[in-house]
Design brief:
heterodimer; A: 302 residues; ABC transporter involved in vitamin B12 uptake, BtuC; two-stranded antiparallel ribbon; 11 helices; B: 309 residues; 73% helix
């Protein structure tokens, strides 16, 4: 067994963690597990792809930055994609989830998210077909960084981007007024209302943050692997497992959970074979539910 | 005309098998309020159990037990019920969402085992030569189809009557009481977790039976028959029919399956060849939107007079 699995696991784990932040926030603030979260990821990746194509049409191709496989158009497009994904999430909430939340049965909202997820994913298949797409056709050479580990320039930069995003998220949740309101609302909705917290603002912020991070993760998967309509569905189980492992409602927990799952998956790929990869998240999920259902940083629910 | 009758029998058989799965879901969701997103996984467990036990010897996988079909069906129910009970045991003391997430995981893992554990499931090629009831008259297509329809209808009727009986029994009343007012039911000394696990396992047994019946009806199974789309279709069937009503579940299954097949035939006739695959995904979009609209405007379904809690 080589140490390569550490690099692979950290990279896929940080992508899972980015997605799991949205899941954990939706669960703790809007109080339902969102089965459509993976599809927000895929929509973000495809939205970005469309914008990249658009930029290419208007200004022609741009040279990649340094040793990376992509140039400034993709960075610009990813920002646009994050805005579009956030709008999509807000639209879904307005059309569907908010109306069902008012009726009070949270499990109905879960079911609606399941229906929405099938519809969103199939709509992507209809528009873009089910064959994989790529932001760039170039092949990157992995360079050795010692201990038998090889890593591509894209992977290094995207790991850095993840660290920046997660740190920003943490500062936002712990220092900003909106972040504090979100945490207050997730801990005690009734009390939060009493002290005059703007609930609809909290709900909006939750969707915007969750969707934007999902889009970022989707674009990264697109850069590192490929873009497929099913990419979000495939990551859904690891993301749920990461959110539960970290403790529902905890942003650092979701990221740590993602890293643990990413590393375990990468180790399992080396030890038992790539085809069993998706079973790892399920095994961890079951272990957490049986041993410590509140997760690493979770609090028992009231 | 003869062909049409044969097709009619085939269509109805398929619809009734979906009806069976929907009946199982109705016991879990309609009666007990347990959310199962891994239906395809439980159906697959039943189908594979029965197929492996009854099929003749194959070169690359466990098999050659050649058991009678009825025994295969029974085993399918037992194994699926056990899988469902385990799932329930791990999650039913927690919030409802955890059951949903775990069942989703069960479907993923079952799909993985079906695809990769070649020695057990035949891998991507699946299990073939599953014995079909009345295989002796297989060359007389119409007679064969009608005899099979008879068997499937009898199984469906038996399950329907059993479930109707169950929902009126003291056991069924406890389940409903737990769904409507958990605290009141617990204060009467009913263990919420144990009753829910029982209901989830029983619903799982019905789904496993449905999977086995379908496997023997078609004579061949493969992993891609058990994709999330199946789960989704069954949910649409239950929601259209109206959750809580067994009759609604059966009617919903027939109606949604008709719409599904009709839409497929329509798009096959109208849409040019290279767009067919894409048009198939529009079918799923339409059902997804329909499911959401029903949840928004008619959560009690179309064929159920009773209002849900």
């Amino acid at each position: 067994m080589t140490l390569q699995f550490i690099a692979d696991g950290l990279i896929s784990g940080s992508l899972i963690g980015l997605g799991a932040i949205g899941i954990t926030l939706t669960y703790s603030i809007l109080r339902f597990s969102n089965f459509a979260h993976g599809d927000l990821m895929a929509w973000g990746a495809y939205g970005t792809l469309a914008v990249v194509g658009g930029i290419g049409e208007v200004v022609g191709g741009a040279a990649p930055i340094g040793a990376l496989s992509f140039g400034w158009p993709l960075i610009l497009a990813a920002l646009a994609g994050m805005v579009m994904t956030a709008c999509l999430a807000l639209l879904l909430d307005w059309l569907l989830f908010a109306r069902l939340r008012e009726k009070g049965q949270s499990i109905i909202v879960v079911m609606a998210s399941f229906g929405a997820s099938m519809a969103l994913r199939s709509l992507l298949e209809f528009i873009f077909s089910s064959s994989p797409a790529y932001y760039s056709r170039g092949i990157q050479m992995a360079m050795p960084i010692g201990f038998g580990i090889r890593i591509t320039p894209d992977q290094i930069v995207l790991l850095g981007v993840t660290v920046v995003l997660v740190t920003a998220m943490h500062l936002f949740m712990s220092r900003s007024q909106t972040g504090r309101e979100m945490r207050a609302y997730s801990q005690n909705p009734a009390l939060a209302r009493v002290v005059g917290i703007d609930v609809s603002g909290v709900v909006r912020a939750t969707w915007i943050i969750g969707a934007a991070l999902a889009c970022a993760a989707g674009v990264m998967v697109g850069i590192l692997v490929q873009i497929r309509p099913l990419m979000g569905l495939d990551l859904l189980l690891p993301m749920f497992a990461a959110a539960i492992l970290g403790g529902i409602g905890s942003v650092p927990g979701a990221v740590l959970g993602g890293l643990i799952i990413g590393l375990s998956e990468a180790a399992a790929v080396q030890l038992i074979g790539a085809e069993w990869r998706s079973a790892v998240a399920f095994g961890i999920l079951m272990a957490v539910l049986l041993v410590r259902p509140v997760g690493l940083f979770g609090r028992a629910e009231r | 005309m003869i062909d049409l009758m044969g097709y009619g029998a085939f269509f109805l058989s398929t619809a009734l098998i979906f009806g069976l799965i929907t009946l199982g879901l109705n016991l879990q969701w309609g009666l007990t309020g347990l959310f199962n997103v891994g239906i395809s996984g439980f159906v697959a467990i039943g189908a594979y159990t029965s197929a492996i036990l009854t099929s003749p010897d194959a070169v690359d996988r466990v098999g050659g037990f050649d058991m009678p079909i009825a025994l295969g069906w029974l085993a399918a129910m037992v194994v699926t019920a056990l899988a469902a009970a385990l799932t329930g045991f791990a999650t039913l003391r927690l919030k409802a969402d955890y059951l949903a997430i775990t069942t989703f995981g069960v479907a993923v893992v079952v799909q993985l085992v079906a695809l990769n554990a070649q020695g057990l499931t035949g891998g991507p090629f699946g299990v073939a030569f599953i014995p079909r009831p009345f295989a002796g008259v297989q060359d007389q297509a119409v007679l064969f189809n009608f005899l099979n329809l008879g068997v499937i209808a009898a199984v469906t009727l038996a399950v329907y009557l059993a479930l109707e009986h169950v929902s009126r029994s003291p056991w069924g009343r406890v389940l409903r009481a737990l769904r409507e007012d958990e605290r009141a039911a617990i204060s009467l000394g009913k263990s919420a977790r144990s009753y829910r696990i029982q209901a989830f396992a029983a619903g799982g047994a019905v789904m496993g039976l449905a999977g086995a019946v379908q496997a023997h009806f078609i004579g061949f199974i493969a992993p891609n028959s058990y994709l999330p789309t199946l789960t989704f279709q069954v949910w649409a069937m239950l929601m259209v029919g109206g959750s809580g009503s067994n009759r609604g579940a059966l009617l919903g299954a027939v109606v949604v399956w008709s719409i599904w097949v009709g839409a497929g035939a329509f798009s096959a006739a109208v849409i040019p060849g290279d767009w067919q695959a894409r048009a198939a995904s529009l079918q799923i979009v339409a059902i997804g939107v329909m499911l959401c609209l029903i949840l928004l405007w008619r959560p009690q379904g179309f064929f159920s007079a009773r209002r849900r809690g």
